[in-house]
Amino acid sequence: MIKMRGIMKYYSAGFGKTFVLRDINLDIEPGEFISIMGPSGAGKSTLLHILGMLDEPSDGEYEFLNERVHKLNEKTRSEIHSNYIGFVFQNYHLIDELTVYENLETPLLYKKIKGSERKSLVSDMLDRFNIVAKKDLFPNQLSGGQQQLVGVARALITSPKMILADEPTGNLNSKQGEEIMELFKQLNNEGTTIIQVTHSEKNASYGKRIINLLDGRIVEEAPL
Ligand SMILES: Nc1ncnc2c1ncn2[C@@H]1O[C@H](COP(=O)(O)OP(=O)(O)O)[C@@H](O)[C@H]1O
Ligand SMILES: [Mg+2]
Questions:
Q1: What's the pLDDT score for residue 221?
Q2: Chain-centroid distance, C-alpha 87
Q3: C-alpha 116 to ligand 1 mean position (Å)
């Protein structure tokens, strides 16, 4: 499903370059559940953003479902993103001007799903995440944990083939966090590919493979 070869990411800094990812080689099969771990600043979010086609590598090759992503134009990349990928952002990334309901509806609009179906999908998600009472509130009227739940619900609403989640439970209490992990486990059992970034050993153990990043390199890959 995914093949990365020699992926590099750097930013120019003065006369030199700051490397964020160095020579990442990665193969991911459909239906895998992977946990990415590593210290802060290791490049985890950058790698996840490149996997999700939200950021471009500086160098290297990235194939997703046999498409050479590094050769695609931005429009095609964002279509693939919308059609296949649900992304949970580390900092939620909700749209401030839209209500919870409208935030959940946004990915469905991108996928051109019609009104009546949008309505029922949004209602299902509001129910499933216990946030029906919050549907008309704006993100700044929610706690961090509630915003995170909306961020996860928004990522799942299109039933994506692949979920990329950047510390999806970082602001949830332990019960909510466990519910999200159980939900991921269930989706993975149904065939969804999941790649999560986590600092929690317990959450990482929901995955079937751990990728450890250090200073932008994969230092160890361990099957669980
Ligand atoms: N736009 C940018 N310009 C310069 N450096 C950046 C930029 N974005 C990220 N970085 C740097 O890349 C490194 C890795 O960041 P990140 O992928 O967010 O790490 P992690 O998610 O593992 O904490 C950090 O040192 C960060 O400062
Ligand atoms: Mg990060």
A1: 72
A2: 3
A3: 41
* Closest ligand 1 atom number to CA of residue 38: 22
Quick one: tokens of 174? 């332990």
Q: Record the pTM.
A: 0.95
Report which bound ligand comes closest to the CA of 165.
2
Write down the pLDDT at residue 80. Answer: 94
Give the residue whose CA is nearest to atom 18 of ligand 1.
45
Given a cut of 50, the residues of the chain with pLDDT beneath it are: none
Neighbours of 209 (CB within 10 A): 17
**Domains of the chain, residue spans:** 2-223
Residue 107: CB partners within 8 Å, gap ≥ 6? 82, 86, 154, 155, 157, 158
What is the dotted CATH code of the domain comprising 2-223?
Answer: 3.40.50.300
Element (H, E) at 42: none
- Candidate of 46, 166, 211 to mutate for ligand 1, largest count of ligand atoms within 8 Å of Cβ: 46
Residue 86 CA to residue 88 CA, distance in Å, equals 7
Taking a 5 Å cut-off on Cβ, the residues next to ion ligand 2 are 44-45
User: Left, alpha or beta for 33 (phi > 0: left; psi -120 to 50: alpha)?
Assistant: beta
pLDDT tens-place string over residues 154-179: 999 999 999 999 999 999 999 999 99
